[in-house]
Write a structure and sequence with these properties.
Radius of gyration: 18 Å
Order of helices and strands: EHHEEEHEEEEEHEHEEEH
Helix content: 25-40%
Bound molecules: 1-O-pyrophosphono-5-O-phosphono-alpha-D-ribofuranose, uracil
Distance between the termini: 36 Å
Length: 215
């Protein structure tokens, strides 16, 4: 997929199935159970596209019939890092495709007044500096949370970071890219704008609340 014409670090993964599932998620009538399932399914479909870029290496194996050279994903296991809470909803779907991935966690919430991210937890697998890291959060709004999460990952040496989100706002894409031009963003959709409270329009509402049924 080529990058977005207005945002060189953004790739919108607009596969018909992704668009279809996202349309159901956005509907205010979609219940928690279905919303949760759809987040996982879209994350899985996005992963199929994003993992296309992973490096491979050749190995010699014995089939039941003869020896051959086959390809496998090179290097250490991939790391998934959901931003709590809503990023958690993307993990299981991705693990269905990449079952041996490691999983870290970054706890951040957005202060409702300032919209600045507040950090409360950080734990990532060892040797994250030598691994491909997929940072996960369904929403890229102001970009503050994702940018803070990437700064934390870079502080432990991670270099091969990709950010996967479902819905991105142009403001967030620009803000994130200004701080981390080296980190590609993959989104299922680029929406129109933020409202005065930092919510994405048209968006899908509060992803954490809809995923966990807290409101
Ligand atoms: C939401 C969302 C992102 C963040 C995006 O989380 O899941 O983490 O807001 O906004 P930003 O781009 O402006 O930083 P929230 O802070 O509501 O926390 P929660 O997932 O714990 O509900
Ligand atoms: N966080 C959300 O969950 N939704 C938005 O629209 C913006 C931030």
């Amino acid at each position: 997929m080529p990058p977005h014409p207005d945002h060189p670090t953004l790739t919108v993964l607009d596969h018909p199935l992704i668009q279809h599932k996202l349309a159901i998620m956005r509907d205010r009538e979609t219940a928690t159970k279905n919303f949760r399932q759809l987040v996982g399914e879209i994350a899985m479909l996005m992963t199929y596209e994003v993992t296309r870029e992973l490096a491979t290496e050749s190995v010699t194996i014995e089939t039941p019939l003869e020896r051959m050279t086959a390809n496998r994903v090179a290097g250490k296991k991939l790391v998934l890092v959901p931003i709590l809470r809503a990023g958690l909803g993307m993990v299981d779907g991705i693990l269905q495709l990449v079952p041996s991935a490691r999983v870290g966690h970054i706890g951040l919430y957005r202060d409702h007044e300032t919209l600045e991210p507040v950090s409360y937890y950080f734990k990532v697998p060892e040797a994250s500096d030598a691994r491909d890291v997929f940072l996960l959060d369904p929403m890229l709004a102001t970009g503050g949370s994702a940018a803070a999460a990437v700064a934390k990952l870079k502080a432990v040496g991670a270099t091969r970071i990709r950010f996967l989100c479902l819905v991105a706002a142009p403001e967030g894409v620009r803000g994130f890219a200004a701080k981390h031009p080296d980190v590609p963003i993959y989104a299922a959709a680029l929406d129109r704008q933020l409202n005065d409270h930092g919510y994405i329009l048209p968006g899908l509402g509060d992803a954490g609340d809809r995923l966990f049924g807290t409101r």
